[in-house]
Write a structure and sequence with these properties.
With 56 residues, the chain is an alpha+beta fold. It has 1 helix and 2 strands. It has one domain. Helix content is 14%, strand content 27%.
Length: 56
Amino acid sequence: MTHPATMRAMTLTGHGGLETLEWREDMPVPEPKSGEVLIKVGAAAVNNTDINTRTG
Protein backbone atom coordinates (compact mmCIF):
# COMPACT_ATOMS: atom_id res chain seq x y z
CA MET A 1 0.00 0.00 0.00
CA THR A 2 1.31 3.45 -0.87
CA HIS A 3 0.61 6.66 0.98
CA PRO A 4 1.24 10.35 0.21
CA ALA A 5 4.61 11.86 1.08
CA THR A 6 3.07 14.73 3.10
CA MET A 7 0.20 15.26 5.51
CA ARG A 8 -1.64 18.12 7.22
CA ALA A 9 -0.86 18.83 10.88
CA MET A 10 -1.35 21.39 13.63
CA THR A 11 2.06 21.87 15.25
CA LEU A 12 2.94 23.37 18.62
CA THR A 13 5.94 25.67 18.10
CA GLY A 14 6.54 26.84 21.70
CA HIS A 15 5.08 28.37 24.83
CA GLY A 16 2.61 31.25 24.53
CA GLY A 17 -0.77 32.03 23.09
CA LEU A 18 -2.56 30.87 19.98
CA GLU A 19 0.32 32.23 17.86
CA THR A 20 2.32 29.15 18.89
CA LEU A 21 -0.07 26.84 17.02
CA GLU A 22 0.85 26.52 13.35
CA TRP A 23 -1.20 24.80 10.61
CA ARG A 24 1.04 22.92 8.20
CA GLU A 25 0.19 21.03 5.02
CA ASP A 26 3.74 19.90 4.25
CA MET A 27 4.61 17.61 7.17
CA PRO A 28 6.26 14.35 6.12
CA VAL A 29 4.20 11.21 6.65
CA PRO A 30 6.03 8.95 9.15
CA GLU A 31 7.44 5.71 7.79
CA PRO A 32 6.46 2.79 10.03
CA LYS A 33 9.29 0.51 11.15
CA SER A 34 9.12 -3.26 11.53
CA GLY A 35 6.35 -4.18 13.97
CA GLU A 36 4.67 -0.73 13.69
CA VAL A 37 1.58 0.37 11.79
CA LEU A 38 0.56 3.65 10.17
CA ILE A 39 -3.03 4.73 10.87
CA LYS A 40 -5.11 7.37 9.14
CA VAL A 41 -6.55 9.87 11.64
CA GLY A 42 -9.92 11.31 10.71
CA ALA A 43 -10.19 13.88 13.50
CA ALA A 44 -8.23 15.07 16.52
CA ALA A 45 -8.54 17.64 19.31
CA VAL A 46 -6.43 19.73 21.66
CA ASN A 47 -6.43 18.41 25.23
CA ASN A 48 -5.63 20.07 28.59
CA THR A 49 -1.98 18.95 28.49
CA ASP A 50 -1.55 20.70 25.13
CA ILE A 51 -3.15 23.89 26.49
CA ASN A 52 -1.00 23.83 29.65
CA THR A 53 2.17 23.18 27.65
CA ARG A 54 1.37 26.05 25.30
CA THR A 55 0.77 28.52 28.12
CA GLY A 56 3.87 27.39 30.04
